[in-house]
Design goal:
Coagulation Factor XIII, Chain A, domain 1; alpha+beta; 2 domains; three-stranded antiparallel beta sheet; four-stranded antiparallel beta sheet
Length: 290
């Protein structure tokens, strides 16, 4: 009985190994098919088809194009995740062939089939994202952020921080760049002209500063508005710049108001590319947000 029992135990143990190996091979095969289906949709520029296999692809600003792929290897990381490594091949319009290794994490759905990509590495270089360099400079994006999803999430956080800095910069400009000693007078044929001085009390050198002048009647109703640039040159920090303006027709305006306008693209360019950072701005932002 003892010998027979051992034989039966060995038989079932061997059977379990065969079943486990069969299931593992099935999982690897299904995960590879998921990746192949994704690349087929990518090659055909079918975004909806790509999203069915990899829903987070919608977070990407760009991704590498593909003509074909070669499955390099697949390995089961745990009971629910498979790592698939491929080599992607693409020839651009100039005939230049490129190849790049890309990794995918594929996981099971409720039916225990490997049909969903949950992350990748190397599907894009992210440099076409406006906030990529900024994220590195402020310490948001670090060297241990390696997968595409990790990097994309950090870029979204960097975008939020950049927007905050843009608002703060705009408020600084609106508060500390002022029009002083300005005046206007009516001219021939209902025209008007004026002059003034702009003082830059910020710590920034600011280009593209515009004025907006509003002409009003005695009741305070706006009759017309006009705008123009204070100067096409940069107004350095601490500098004062004189300017003049002319409006061809203001009707019977009895008074006027003037304000400054700052180019939003200029502020974005300054925050993302021109301003110098120490590298701990993201950490400080997160600490103050808690």
């Amino acid at each position: 009985m003892t010998i027979m029992k051992r034989i039966i135990e060995k038989f079932f143990f061997g059977l379990l190994i065969i079943v486990a190996f069969s299931c593992s091979s099935k999982y690897l095969s299904e995960s590879e098919e998921t990746v192949k289906t994704f690349f087929k949709a990518l090659k055909e520029s079918k975004v909806d088809g790509m999203a069915k296999m990899y829903e987070n692809i919608n977070l990407f600003d760009s991704y590498y194009k593909s003509d074909s792929i070669q499955i390099l290897r697949s390995s089961k990381l745990n009971d629910s995740t498979v790592l698939v490594k491929v080599k992607n091949f693409f020839t651009n319009g100039f005939g230049k062939l490129t190849n790049k290794e890309i990794q995918f994490l594929v996981t099971t759905d409720s039916t225990k089939s490997f049909t969903r990509i949950i992350d990748s590495k190397g599907l894009t270089n992210h440099i076409e994202n406006d906030f990529y360099d900024f994220a590195k400079k402020v310490g948001c994006l670090k060297v241990n952020d390696t997968t595409d999803l990790e990097i994309n999430l950090k870029l979204l956080e960097a975008k939020t921080l950049a927007h905050k800095l843009q608002v703060e910069t705009l408020l600084d400009f609106m508060t500390n760049v002022t029009v002083v000693n300005w005046s206007w007078e009516s001219g021939y044929g209902g025209s008007a002209s004026g002059k003034g001085i702009v003082k830059n009390n910020t710590t920034f050198s600011i280009p593209k500063v515009k004025y907006i002048v509003k002409y009003l009647d005695r009741s305070g109703n706006v009759l017309t508005t006009d705008d123009g640039y204070i100067s096409y040159d940069i107004i350095d920090y601490g500098e004062s710049k004189s300017f003049t303006f002319y409006t061809s027709y203001v009707g019977n305006a009895s008074r006027a108001s003037i304000m400054l306008d700052f180019d939003e693209d200029m502020i974005k360019e300054y925050v993302l590319n021109t301003k110098e950072y120490e590298g701990n701005e993201y950490e400080q932002y997160m600490n103050t947000s808690e």
